[in-house]
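Researcher: Here's my situation. A collaborator sent me these components and asked whether they could plausibly form a single complex. I don't have experimental data yet, so a predicted model of the whole assembly would be a useful starting point for our discussion.
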Amino acid sequence: MEMATADLEQLGQQAQQASYALGLLTTTQKNDVLLAMAAALTAQQATILAANAQDLENPQVPEKFVDRLTLTADRIADMATGLKQVAALPDPIGNVDHAWKNTAGLMIAKQRVPLGVIGMIFEARPNVTVDASALCFKTGNAVILRGGKEALHSNQALVNVLRGALQAAGVDENAIQLIQDTSHATAEKFMQLTDYVDVLIPRGSARLIQTVLAKATVPVIETGAGNCHVYVDQAAQLKMATDIVVNGKVQRPSVCNATEKLLIHAAVAADYLPTIVQALRDQGVEVRGDARTRAIVPDVIPATDADWGTEYNDLIIAVKVVDSEAEAIQHINRYNTQHSEAIVTDNYQAGKVFQQRVNAACVYINASTRFTDGFEFGFGAEIGISTQKLHARGPMGLVELTSYKYVIDGNGQVRQ
Amino acid sequence: MEMATADLEQLGQQAQQASYALGLLTTTQKNDVLLAMAAALTAQQATILAANAQDLENPQVPEKFVDRLTLTADRIADMATGLKQVAALPDPIGNVDHAWKNTAGLMIAKQRVPLGVIGMIFEARPNVTVDASALCFKTGNAVILRGGKEALHSNQALVNVLRGALQAAGVDENAIQLIQDTSHATAEKFMQLTDYVDVLIPRGSARLIQTVLAKATVPVIETGAGNCHVYVDQAAQLKMATDIVVNGKVQRPSVCNATEKLLIHAAVAADYLPTIVQALRDQGVEVRGDARTRAIVPDVIPATDADWGTEYNDLIIAVKVVDSEAEAIQHINRYNTQHSEAIVTDNYQAGKVFQQRVNAACVYINASTRFTDGFEFGFGAEIGISTQKLHARGPMGLVELTSYKYVIDGNGQVRQ
């Protein structure tokens, strides 16, 4: 049943109220709570697993959701480890980015503060409940979680454990709240709770993210979709190119930083195409290609126009032969999702031009697109990968969950 | 007449196309164009003034718009000076915020890039056309301008001059485009041009900004509304408090960083209220107050609940007596627009608590709220004052018109 607007507003008010207190906690206080949450997850494992079993019993859960929805003792232990890792990370809150004296003699300091209240909208992965709560809490943000209906019992159990740890520590438990009603109507109201929610972060399928972008009036950080390209330049080391393309495509094909498209310079296409097609097929990849590709390797499946804009998230790749780096860049800027793009080349100039002109969060020379990841980047955490240009771009760690304020000390200055 | 969607999309495509080239211009190239624009404004002053006269002849222009709409030789000279000042500012594009080597040996650099295409929506001030164009151009962004209908001829003339300077320099003139149709229907379509516009910045009345927030699907940077408070603490120097309150209220009452509300600690209210009320009235300010204020100064006009949330932009102030700093902070966080807030106190602890707990872009100790301004902050420019927490908060200068990308150099790394 749809949640009443007033009830949702109350959730928002509670989150906002909690956020004021959260912003004042010391780093030690926050870390202690995170460690207590980790211990509580382990201690209350049986309750969590029982709730998860309830979710899994639901015959309406699509088969493809079962794996990501399933919790085990190991997966709960992983969540607890994750909480401990977040506790060990440096706390950005209170840091001064820079400080200066203006001409009137005011001391101005730009200081990191929490965003306030973060709304997370996600699908059937209960681990997001714990991850997102930990990262928001560490950065002094209250979080309102709206997970998928398939995981409702699991999410309720997990949030109960986390809130219990907050309460035991004397912290307002409304720092972490779960929307118990998973209807679309309630989700839409949530996306418009501008008085209380400072930012929405959707995590999940392209469809989920598009829905949030279309319906939300709260500012959104767009995450996720990745139609990532590798361009093999005429000056590429071809063995390296194969390693990079195969790794990008097959190492974990379902994720957003997987390679989806291969562009090959015409000067090396005749030599290279048979090799790379074979290497991909050896790993079970379906290869599609444009006419020039098929002129060289005839049994490649024809690629249609729709292929160029599609994120397969699967063992499929589409290949196109281009006459120049400029054509490769133009193709990428037309079809990409501004996520991750790579060039393989030993020509320094070609590499730097590619990095400068390709419009994407992460642009690689001679490396796999799979590195676009908060952990690989050394952030120690990741709340998602932003594909927009506002606020945060690419992997988002703790500092991307903060804002800033100017704190200004005067001694009676007035404006002339 | 409403503009066809296809025509608006073409405008967007042209802007996006221009933005790719803009991102590649050197700082010297950009500065030369800005100086050429300044010269062209002066050279073509007669044409601009004639177009402005056409706007001013329109009998439907509201009286209150006439001053801001009127151009003179002096005002055109000011615009030219503004362009030269922007040329003299440092260029953030290409700067590396930081760079590091990850555990796989990848060299990762976080580098400043343009946002891409910026949409500016504003009212009857033709100077915004030139200011915004200069700041967007300096930061390598294409801009699409949608000004108020009252200023259409002036804006057309100004944009023609700026585009002429672009063309003469061999730069794609679609770096600066004006939406010629000022209907609301076209404005709404513009706000939803997500494929081509990276960010919308509305500048003007609270109503304009609320409309953009409600209708836009393009990310918006919310600017402007300022319901700014001064809290006079029990440990305030009262003479200093008077200077700060009077300056904040009367120096330029129509702007967003003007002081709108005065909170006074009960311990000093009986002593201080008669003085400050008199000082404000001496400057023509209408003083409204809560019951406790009126118990001390009986002829103060009663403030209603609506007053606390209202930005007057006029010579009006509302006064409230509070029992503690905590009550002052709670009141501010309930009613403010997160713009600028000040405490007057000689108690260091009280000042720092206020700065930490008040939720606003700029929080002052012992200074006027009027200092919230890109020029006063030393940014050398200002595109607006953000009252949101995402991306930019407070005065926005050049760097706030940029995004970043990660450029990553490898030598064959693949993900394990």
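Model: Some features of this prediction you could bring to your collaborator: The domain at 228-371 of chain A is CATH 3.40.309.10 (Aldehyde Dehydrogenase; Chain A, domain 2). Chain A has two domains: 5-222+391-409, 228-371.
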